Amino acid sequence: MSSFYRVNGFCYLSLLLLISSQLVLVPKAEAEAQSGQSNEVYIVYTGAASLASSNGFHSDHIMSSSSIKSWKDRIIHKYNHAFSGFAARLSEEEAKLIAQRPEVVSVFPDRIHRLHTTRSWDFLMEQSAGFAPARQNIPKSNVSSLSDEDVIIGIFDTGIWPEAKSFNDDGLGPIPKKWKGQCIGGHDFKPFNCNRKLIGARNYVTNGSSTSPRDHNGHGTHVAAIAAGRPVPGASYHGLATGVARGGAPGARIAAYRVCDDDDNCMSSIVLKAFDDAIADGVDIISISFGSLEFIDFTRDPVSIGAFHAVENGILVVGSAGDNALDEEPPYAINVAPWILTVGATTIDRFFESDVVLGGKQVIKGGGVHSAKLKETPIYPLTYGKSAAKPGASISDAYNCMIDALDGKKVKGKIVLCEDSREETTPAKQLEVIKRLGGTALIYRKRFIQLAASVSDSIPRIPISWDDGDLVVSYIDSNRNPVATILPTVVVPNYKPAPEVAFFSSPGGGALYGYNYFIKPDIVAPGVDILSAWPSNETNEAFNILSGTSMACPHVSGVAALVKSRYPSWSPSAIKSALMTSANPTNNLKKPIATFIGDAGDPTEMGAGQVTLTGPLQPGLIYETEAADYILFLCNQGYNVSRIRLISSKLPANFSCPSNSSTEDYSANMNYPSITVTNFNSLKEKTVKRTVTNVGDDEEAAYVASVEMGSTNNDVIARVNPTKLVFTKNQKKLGYEMTFIHNSSAIVNGYAFGSVTWRNGKILEKHPLENWSFSMKYLEYTPLDRINDFLSQVNLGERTIKGCLEAYSCKHTGTDKKLSLSLESEILDYLGKSSDTDSPSPVEYLPTSSRRTLIYLLLTLYHIYPDYDFSAVNAHQFFNEETWDSFKQIFDVYMFEASKEWLETNEGCTLLEILYKALDEVVKLAECEIYSYNAEADADPSLERGAIWSYHFFFYNRKLKRVVSFRFSCLSNLAVESFLADGMSYDDADDEIFDGMDI
């Protein structure tokens, strides 16, 4: 299967500023599937709806006039309400033929999209109250009593469980007259299952046993109740997290569109059909908690296509950013088109704790939620995955409790400690292995501070920290008969700090749609350990606890519904602006929201901050993004007028893309609630424009601006002009300019963050975002400093040993994004060739799984040697050392004399032991990949004049996104002195030295 692409406030307002160094070009997405297969499902997208498409004639004409045999039987879906197109079974050649037609925007294969899988609303209220006191003109008790009954939220998910108490219609008025949708039943879902709360339901899934809107997965029921569930007193999960479960907009109506099957798969053709129907049905907000598995172009992404036409019809689309932060491919947020409100996930101030007690009464802090009835005295045998390995099984597989790696006799009746350090396994899979082999419980050690609840019933599944895992291992190794138990789960309230960015929440940094033009995600919301409704016949509980950006997304959808109910005439962009400019960037300690590793979060991780409840209801000033902004954005992305005219129904008859639209940064001037300035390295200053609308209660209002950049950034100056905006009854819209100036080249390598705040005197406190982030950020670690001080110059008389350790955070931003995309583009082109091709490649043949690693290593080299050109580097020059022992052998031989010098001046541990501990502290060696860089002698920047030998190693941790560079070399003092004494140049001296040596 192949893909085809035709190229032809209120009184307070905080605005994020993002300055990066390079313009990142948008790469074409590679074909997703194998070619040569016939009669696969393809989507033919023909743009905005027309009279012909509304009658279905358009699709019929395209199929019949393209000489497609038996075409009537091959059309699966027709899109004819808000946009036009169809899904049909086509061969590859037929799809290519249709793609050439002038009325066709794009043809692409049907793809799989995946789901992003009580207390949260109270926590948001507390955070809202503590953030901006002057906003609280609306009492807490009135937030949920606003007239939200006329707002309709469309939930695209796995369906809905209509009997859940969260969807009762007690006290609700008649269904809004604007509703044009239906409640379509099935074998286990009848039209009478709908009511004045659940006003519509449709099913699009035809595979599997269920072909009705009923939710047998649970995900759709869970997210629908978060967004708009009715209050349910006494809600809990096995008696935990007891309270009143309610949604953000409890009076809003729900329309459920089942687009995902019970296995979490959501097909592109189905998603587009749901968009087409929902727009015609009359929903106000569409909430989407799933997304693509890859970066794809706007005209081939069903969520972006559907959302574009929804926004044109006045419907706000809220999408989850994804749970891929720790994944290798792709680790970045999706659902990032500028017309989508993209939501990341944060924690709340409630923690579920299930402690592990070892035989010596030592208590290990554990997360997770379980209902198992284990004795509280440690009597259950305890073992480690590697100790339970089958004969001949891989030790790594056993560590991670992989299927077929463990011996059932060594697991039965025991609590098993496993590692969570392999991409191909998950705690859920490990639990199935332990359960199948008769184990009593699973403990899995994690690298991350956050211990999100891992819900299990009969067999506990308990996460612990990596360091605590070391304590458990030490206990097992030092006891002949180690035992343990798992204590009952308890709730830890008022947990601090909260919120934190969830460890799984996908950050910004990808390149989809010129993604670097906008800060994404736009906002964050609670998405960890969220209690919500659940299909009650699949568990003894009517509520369940889940985590994911899937849960964060409906939180924002619910607040958006409240804003829509208060301001029914507002556009999607106005609602989006109100949510973003009132977001809270601080936690319950009044400090900036942090990431899961404790670092201050930046906008690429948390957008404008955490959504608040009352702030968006009285924003004062808003940014309205017009249709013209999106059209110019499409011009900027390389779409020509003919193609844009097919896509947008709002295009003026005389419109033409500006002649320099492909190079001019139009996106920076899009009237977006955040500012991103790119391609900044070539200019001393850059100016962008914004327009704000006064929607506050006071028609006569004056706002004064203040600008603040990150405290560590002295090289970037941001100025606003004018600094005061005076609104009158007849002047509700005013513009201003932001000018950015830099005085050095320091900004070339990264991002600078800041904020501009507009206030009218009623606000007592401002909360600007003060963050500074470099692309490949240099990390300072004291353990490395001690070794560096020693290795700066170890003089051995005739020779000098020199070494250097440097740690970097491998975050893709700024200049690195352009370099990365350039390298990836060349790599991807080459990957499409056979391994024996004669075509030149900058990296030679490279497996797909390794290409991002190569890019990180190259980026690290560029930062170490900024003046050196590595464009000719080949992949084979980076050798993957299999184990630490491989590195140790080289170190022991070549650093033998330096190690002796170390022992003479440092008592205790050897140099290698100190090095191991330092590296382990920074990058956790147990899960590191070790690479050696083997450059040609005449192309190795680490070879200094007089060098006898040189080595360069990289210790790379994928999950932590960190890399440590360790380079060490030996220089001949006598050789250089002798040659230079004879008046020989350094270059000639190098030649003489190396010519006379066998290396």
Explain this structure.
By secondary structure, the chain is an alpha+beta fold. Helix content is 25%, strand content 25%. The protein has a seven-stranded parallel sheet, with helices on both faces. It is globular and about 85 Å long. The model is unreliable at 1-14, 18-37, 132-145, 745-749, 763-776, 812-849 and 989-999 (pLDDT under 50).
Keywords:
single chain; 999 residues; alpha+beta; Alpha-Beta Plaits; Rossmann fold; Glucose Oxidase, domain 1; 5 domains; seven-stranded parallel β-sheet; seven-stranded mixed β-sheet; 25 helices; 47 strands; globular; disordered N terminus
Write a compact overview of the structure shown.
Belongs to the peptidase S8 family. 25% of the residues lie in helices and 25% in strands.
The total of helices stands at 25
CATH topology of the largest domain: Rossmann fold
Q: Under the CATH scheme, which architecture of the largest domain would be assigned?
A: 3-Layer(aba) Sandwich
Mean pLDDT: 80
Give the overall silhouette: globular
Largest sheet: 7 strands, parallel
Fourth-level CATH superfamily of the largest domain:
Peptidase S8/S53 domain
Q: In which range does the helix fraction lie?
A: 10-25%
Radius of gyration: 30 Å
The proportion of residues in beta strands is 25-35%
Order of strands in the sheet with most strands: 9-12-8-14-16-17-29
**Roughly how many Å apart are the termini?**
51 Å
Number of strands: 47
**What is the highest CATH level, the class of the largest domain?**
Alpha Beta
Q: How does the helix and strand content classify structurally?
A: alpha+beta
Count of discrete domains: 5
Give start-end ranges of low-pLDDT stretches: 1-14, 18-37, 132-145, 745-749, 763-776, 812-849, 989-999
